[in-house]
Amino acid sequence: MGELLKREDQRVEDTWDLTSIFESDEKWEEAYKEVEDRLSEADTFREKGIQSSDDLLEVLEAERDLGVTLSQVYVYSHLKHDQDTSNSKYQSMESRAMSLYTKFASAWSFLTPALMQIDEETLNSYAEEDKLKEFKFDLEKINKQRAHVLSDKEEKLLAQAGLVLNNPGLTYAIFNNADLSFDNAVDSDGNSHVLTQGTYIDLLKSSDRTLRKSAYETLYKKYGEYENTLAQTLSGEVDSHVFTAEARGYKSSRDQALSNNHIPEEVYDQLVDVVNDNLHLLHRYTELRKEMLGLDELTMYDIYTPLVDEDFKVTYEEAKNHVIEGMAPLGEEYQDILREGFNNRWVDIYENKGKRSGAYSSGTYGTNPYILMNWQDNVDNMFTLAHEFGHSVHSYYSRKNQTANQSGYSIFVAEVASTFNEALLADYLYKNLDDDKKKLYLLNEQLEGFRGTVFRQTMFAEFEHKIHTLKESGEPLTADKLNEVYGDLNKKYYGDAVSYDDLISKEWARIPHFYMNYYVYQYATGYSAAATLSEIVLNGTKEDSDRYINEFLKKGSSNYPIEILKNAGVDMTTREPIEKAMKFFEEKLDQFEQLIKNK
Ligand SMILES: [Zn+2]
């Protein structure tokens, strides 16, 4: 392995082209200044008030348009910063852009309350006017919140209480990220390995069982030492959800969390029900794992290690061609967008000193949907590339076909397009590979992806709901209680093939998502939606792929996520998509077992 490149030594064609946002840093400064100078416009609008539909249109457009320029200012600085985080010029540009955002948000914070001041009937009649049609859905959403908006005095009090209510989550984050550290894990040769939140799962994937055991025990024993404190931060977080939901007159904290996106609670319950009805499939997979690893006792630190050892090399050029070819079921136009992205430098491909780690798709209205990669020549990276292009083409279509205020998409659907692309790529590769070992490797990756995204996140969702309902019925969330609930769920999910110890019961303490208020279930629903949609497209006609593109990828947030998905062909209010996803897992498991037998 050579030294990492410096940023300035990257070949230009391997980097993203940000000049299409701002030609130069000087142009960025001009845009920054423009936004700054126009912040005071908000005051003028606030003082003037909204007396007519013309006033309404004017104020909504002003906020939207300034918001677009601001987000371009932010995105440019953010991408420049990420390409080399040690560059102090871009550090400072990004932090200036962030503080400009805060100023903008505060200047325009009058708008929603001002819209609430207009009585419902009047606001509805404005929204019906043709000139306001681009804002009609936004206004409808505001109207729906009315029942949960309190008096001015109470709203002010709640806003001030936010500082206190956020504290449990902030305390946890600081403890988990800054204060908590672990001893090194030790492998079978006595060598030390740095153990952090970031390296933990990689260590659990090691083929060295001594190292896996060491990482697992060291990590959870440490969490165990602080379990009473961490039970208190999690309990405090749940308290804050329960308090806010009660104050705003929701039925429960889950009701509040889901109604933000207009998701019926049945969607959540059905997910948990269907997954529970199919836990025998996860048990079967766990049995198979025990058998393939040749272990007398399968433990929780044997769950992550790959079952197929295969060095599956792919260069960036090869990956690019596979991704384009793999998306053929979506048609020429979709593939042309991919080519446009590859040819016009949407992707920042290789690692360099100081570059942000990992991968993402970013950008905003009026910019290219950029992709950051830290390319390595392997199959995982090829899937990441397909995944990020899934996000990027979704953004591309939505930004081209919706107005700025509706061009984003909600978290509930955010991972659908990306997971969809992974499914298409896997299908393409599977059909085109002649090497059984590579096929096994692919299937293993798919099974693992499914376990981690559908089974595991549903287990999290079940845990999260359980601790909220316990709290709502007045039960204290002590460390013992949390260990008991988590340990029982873990046993139920992984089944009898695993020999359990007490340490895994403490896993709740290391999961930051439990501080995100009913967030995790969306990984499982998103995956299931993608599984259904990709199956429709893979087995369907041009009409089916057009429907996916037109009704889903182009729709942004122009409707409620459940409605958008329904129009695209998947009804998340029924059990069917989750059942189909389970079927998909079963088929992969069958294929996997078959290939092993044939070996
Ligand atoms: Zn993603």
Automatic annotation (TrEMBL):
Name any cofactors this protein relies on: Zn(2+)
Q: Where is the Peptidase M3A/M3B catalytic domain?
A: 203-583
Q: Which GO terms describe its molecular function?
A: metal ion binding; metalloendopeptidase activity
Copy out the cofactor comment. Binds 1 zinc ion.
Which InterPro entries does the record match to this protein?
Answer: OligopepF_N_dom, OligoPept_F_C, Pept_M3A_M3B, Pept_M3A_M3B_dom, Peptidase_M3B
**What EC number(s) does its UniProt record assign?**
3.4.24.-
The UniProt keyword set, sorted, is: Hydrolase, Metal-binding, Metalloprotease, Protease, Zinc
Keyword Nucleotide-binding present in the record's keywords: the answer is no
Pfam families associated with the record: Peptidase_M3, Peptidase_M3_N
A GO BP entry is: peptide metabolic process
Report if keyword Protease is assigned: yes
Its top-level enzyme class, in one word, is hydrolase
The Oligopeptidase F N-terminal domain sits at: 115-182
Family stated for the protein in its record:
Belongs to the peptidase M3B family.
According to its UniProt entry, the function of this protein is described as: Has oligopeptidase activity and degrades a variety of small bioactive peptides.
Q: What is this protein called?
A: Oligopeptidase F
Species assigned in the record: Nosocomiicoccus massiliensis
